[in-house]
Amino acid sequence: MSKHDDNAVSDRPTNFIRNIINEDLAQHKHEMVHTRFPPEPNGYLHIGHAKSICLNFGTAADYDGQCNLRFDDTNPSKEDLEYVESIKKDVTWLGFEWAGDIRYSSNYFDQFYAYASELIEKGLAYVCFLNAEETREYRGSLKAPGKNSPYRDTSPAENLALFAKMKNGEMKEGECVLRAKIDMASSFMCMRDPALYRVRFEHHHQTGDKWCIYPMYDFAHCISDAIEGITHSLCTLEFQDNRRLYDWMLEHLNDFNKPDRPHQYEFSRLNLEYTVMSKRKLHQLVDDNLVSGWDDPRMPTISGLRRRGYTAASLRDFADRIGISKVDSMTGMDVLEAAIRDDLNKIAPRTMAVMDPIKIVIENYDGDIESIQAPIHPQNEAMGKREIFFGKELYIDRADFQEVAPNGKFKRLALDKEVRLRNAYIIKAVRADQDEAGNFTTIYCTYDPETLGKNPADGRKVKGVIHFVEASKALPAVFRIYDRLFSVENPAKADDFESVLNTESLEVKQGLVEPGLANSEPEKAYQFEREGYFCRDNQSGDVQVYNRTVALRDTWAK
Ligand code: ATP
Ligand code: MG
């Protein structure tokens, strides 16, 4: 069975794009699959881009094909090398490899110019001097057809000369544009003589000052696809109408008007609850200092998710879970969190951290500090053991103690009640000191020395288990607990999206971690037992700062 056979491809769920590919391969329209991911380097990638990356690179890989990384860099005013670098890093981190060299639309500026000239020579493009307002007026509306520009019938020879003048810097910005000559009465607005080139005296991060005319997306994108031999050009639904223009362009250029030319297919974009995905809005959050940067762990950016502790595997799994369709929808945060939880549950080493410490003194313990071997992962012995410590002074979490146990199932520490310290002994609280405000400051306990790793011999049942750290060995640490960035499900719909920011999206706590975390690596996941999944922050140097990736249980499901 060849890889191209329907069932041999992969165990991924199929989707309408795979069906199209299967059909194209069966009909020998294409002999292999070649996709591309075409980001505009005008911001950092977000989780919506991750969906597109997984689709483009993942589909190519499943069919033994290729996927290009192409920077769609035709608008120099908003682009920057910083974004180019971050995009390369994010794609690689997600686990994908682009075919050959990185491509830039700007690599093809000479070819674009030649193809535009071909359209002019064929009487299919003209230089138009209507100003912006006139152009709008002439375009008509969804209800009314447009009217032809007075410049529409200029001769090809004259248009070629005018286009050359545009290129040579003899036209001012906004003075004229090159337009395709299609149909001013088309029911698709994008077919009403769309602009192909405009004048911009801008420095470009790849081509420097060589050009002062820049091509429009609809002209550059299809030609770039065709030059690179892309077979399936996958984009989001808002380009549905533009498919007519994509096809028109390639069908009217001699080099590309062939059965195996690229075709565009649209899928629905990812929308995620409680966040925004528009680059303009993400820019605004960064520029207005409402987050610490593009990689703030509350941002839906790939760099933010990475810093927060999301793994590449969990984002790829998330993409599989949401699937590909043509129906616009809003994905719940619980889907994303289920993907990371399932991954981290398997791979994250277990450790203990106390985020709101209260001191415990074991009154009947007088020995040296005791070393205990605790499992790194209780369900996976192969991950080995870690060293933890027990001694006279310990810390537990303030929430794990109450003076009087409430009725019923209180499984924590209370006066005269026993509880097990995770990986260590059973202790019982005897009395507690309080400060003037009534807060407990120290809890005095006894421990049962016969209960390390075993139940009491007399058969008494101790149900609760709480986590702890030994006082002298524990390391001070800062914990950043993140909540949703916005307080409403669809912030993009708010008149002012900044007004619906969740003002409590970050809570900082000071506490203690096991000494084994002294050299924890940034971005590497841990399960802080009973607390959640955390990773060391990648920008806090030697200070022990941990970002909460996700809580242990779902707090989002409705
Ligand atoms: P803009 O063009 O406004 O700067 P964009 O989000 O379209 O923003 P691009 O860099 O053009 O950004 O996107 C690169 C690719 O990622 C495109 O093919 C685009 O369709 C896809 N993409 C962008 N946002 C999403 C999303 N939310 N879900 C799925 N794919 C997306
Ligand atoms: Mg775009």
Characterise the protein shown here.
- The chain is an alpha/beta fold.
- It folds into 3 domains: 6-267, HUPs (Rossmann fold), CATH 3.40.50.620; 279-349 and 477-550, Orthogonal Bundle (Glutamyl-tRNA Synthetase, domain 2), CATH 1.10.1160; 353-467, Ribosomal Protein L25, Chain P.
- Helices cover 24% and strands 23% of the residues.
- The protein has helices at residues 16-26, 47-62, 81-93, 109-121, 132-139, 156-167, 217-227, 242-251, 279-287, 302-308, 312-322, 333-347, and strands spanning 34-37, 66-71, 103-104, 125-128, 177-180, 195-199, 213-215, 232-236, 263-267, 350-351, 353-354, 357-362, 370-375, 385-390, 393-397, 401-402, 413-414, 418-421, 426-434, 440-448, 465-466, 468-470, 475-482, 506-513, 525-528, 532-536, 545-550.
- A hairpin with a 3-residue loop joins strand 25 (525-528) and strand 26.
- Helix 7 crosses helix 8 and helix 11 crosses helix 12.
- The longest helix is centred in the first third of the chain and has 16 residues, at 47-62.
- The chain starts with 15 loop residues before the first helix and ends in an 8-residue tail after the last strand.
- Residues 1-8 have low confidence and may be disordered.
- The structure holds adenosine-5'-triphosphate and magnesium ion.
- Adenosine-5'-triphosphate binds at residues 38-40, 42, 48-49, 51-52, 235-236, 269-270, 277, 279.
- The site of adenosine-5'-triphosphate has 14 residues, from helix 2 and strand 8.
How large, in whole angstroms, is the Cα Rg? Answer: 31 Å
Total beta-strand segments: 27
**So, the CATH homologous superfamily of the largest domain?**
HUPs
Which class do the helix and strand fractions yield?
alpha/beta
Outline, from the CA principal axes? elongated
Terminus-to-terminus distance: 45 Å
User: Low-confidence parts, pLDDT < 50 over ≥5 residues?
Assistant: 1-8
The bound ligands are:
adenosine-5'-triphosphate, magnesium ion
Could you describe the largest sheet, including whether it forms a barrel?
Answer: 7 strands, mixed
Number of helices: 12
Helix content: 10-25%
The neighbouring-strand order within the major sheet is 10-25-26-27-23-24-11
β-sheet strand percentage: 15-25%
Indicate the CATH architecture of the largest domain: 3-Layer(aba) Sandwich
* Average pLDDT figure: 95
Quickly count the domains. 3
